[in-house]
Amino acid sequence: MINWSEKWAQVTRIWLTTHFNILVFLFVVVLSATLCFCGLGNRTLWQDEGETAVLAQRVLSGGVPRALSGYNLVYQSQGGPQYDKNYRWTYHPWGQFYLTAASFAVLGQTNFAARFPFALCGVLTVALLYVFVWRHWRSLAAAFLSALLLATSTAFVLHCRQCRYYGLSAFTCLSAVVVFVELMKKPCRQWWITFGVVLAAQFYADFGTLAVLLPGLALSLWPMGARKQQLIAVAKASGLAILVMIPGLILHWDRLTAAGGGNHRFLMILLFHIYYFDNWFVPLVFLVPAGGVFVWRLVKSRERLSEQDRIVITCALVIGSIMTGMTWAAPYPYVRYLISSASLARLLLAVILIEGYIILRKKALPVLPARMVFISSLLILMFSNIFALPTQYLIYKYHRYLFKALDFCSKSSPFVRAEFAGLVYEITHDFVSPDRLAVNVAGDLVRSDETVVMDYGELVLLFYRPDLRIYSSDTLSNLKGPPDLVILCQVPSRIRAFFKELREKNDHIYFAFSVPITSAGGNNAELGEHWFATPSVRRPLYILLRRDHEDRISRLPQTDEELEARWFRRR
């Protein structure tokens, strides 16, 4: 006889669990979307974003991203081949340019449209992480915590709010790991084709991350228990990926085979990466003991690795591969090179927190104190860097050179920071950058087809004013005749001689203003160089105008109030 009461209770529990799971999923996705999209169009693009946006404009006009259009050349002094003989851009893969161009075509050429697809990729990464953890852990707590930690990661959000490949690379990197795990479980045609497509997508999003991701996935074949069938499926997927990547390999071959710039400082850059990982991914005070406990358990246990153990090892191997590989390949240590692994790091952190809570509850503390410790730790991790203080102290005490090289968000208090509070302030308040200032100055003082010289931020101006002839320190050799306007927020050595020559020739009138801006943009996603609010410290703004532009000289602001009213506003 069927016990209808028990049957109804079981159905009710399943229904409630399913619907509550959906509500929790929607909550995390909405939170991520709020942080990624709120105020997305407020800030003016900065230099690297300007490069992506300008090349996307040229995709719309000519079908491919070309470095040269009319008089204007896209060039940044990073070294290595940046374009081919037909001026097709080769320094970066083209995925980000076509994605931005598609957004421009639908939404118009605005700040919001430029950043929209990458912010969307950030939200999709959070959603995919939740689904992935729920599928393999069947734990609402694990899925929610992983996604929440990623959605509220200031470093992750700032990088996804850029018109740059970071958000796209984060999504494709997590997708590669997700599909790899599914392929190991079920090496069928559906999954090996998907894996091949995802690897190719990672190549066209960011081939640097693909190069350092592959060794980690290859090493993970062992803990995932790969057999002949899985190895054959991986080989098929690799063949498909290479086939799809052939056009990109041909186009970017010179760039891909150029010598890396970071191997001569391997240990120093690796130390930087470890420091970044400790501050913005997983604190070492959690990771090191948790790793020790995990290894000890695996050694002592006679049981086979669980599915969750295999995924944790895979995540750790992929993260280690990305950190080590980027140390070798990248000439400078930036968080942007590691951001693709943020989702995997947050998964590891969530597992560490949950396992730590279970151990505390069973062996050390009653339920209520254990929960209080867990919640307190979670809040500290989300809203401050307190758990990273031991590493900062050791670097400061024993490696002063590295400490001085690191740039902190809070210049007056470099140790304790609350970047999440800064992020919330940023998305709800205006910010005045030298890029916005330059765009507004050019809008007031130059006309179409006239010449402007800037040292940094010229690509931003080129996005907003493609009708001008714009030169920087990298392209000054192409300049013919005196410029109509020179805008400088600083006078670095590479342009000092040109600046001095213009003043000595007496063809230009020199003006200097004092304005509250950063020296190099302030919208750089690197947390050490990012400004959440307009700084209070004032810096010089240098403007040189040709003497024969008397009408424009007379229109220059006469007071700080007039300058801020005309050149600080959003347009």
Task: Describe the model.
The structure is a single chain. The chain is mainly alpha-helical and 571 residues long. Helix content is 62%, strand content 5%. It contains 24 helices and seven strands. The strands form two sheets. Strands 4-3-5-7-6 form a five-stranded mixed sheet, sandwiched between helices. Strand 1 (68-69) and strand 2 (72-73) form a beta hairpin. The longest helix is centred in the first third of the chain and has 34 residues, at 4-37.
SSE layout and pairings?
Blueprint: H1 4-37, H2 47-62, E1 68-69, E2 72-73, H3 95-107, H4 111-137, H5 140-151, H6 154-160, H7 166-185, H8 189-205, H9 207-220, H10 228-251, H11 253-256, H12 266-280, H13 284-300, H14 307-329, H15 342-364, H16 367-383, H17 389-398, H18 400-405, H19 419-428, H20 434-445, E3 451-454, H21 458-464, E4 469-471, E5 485-488, H22 493-505, E6 508-515, E7 539-546, H23 550-553, H24 560-567
Parallel strand pairs: 3-4, 3-5
Antiparallel strand pairs: 1-2, 5-7, 6-7
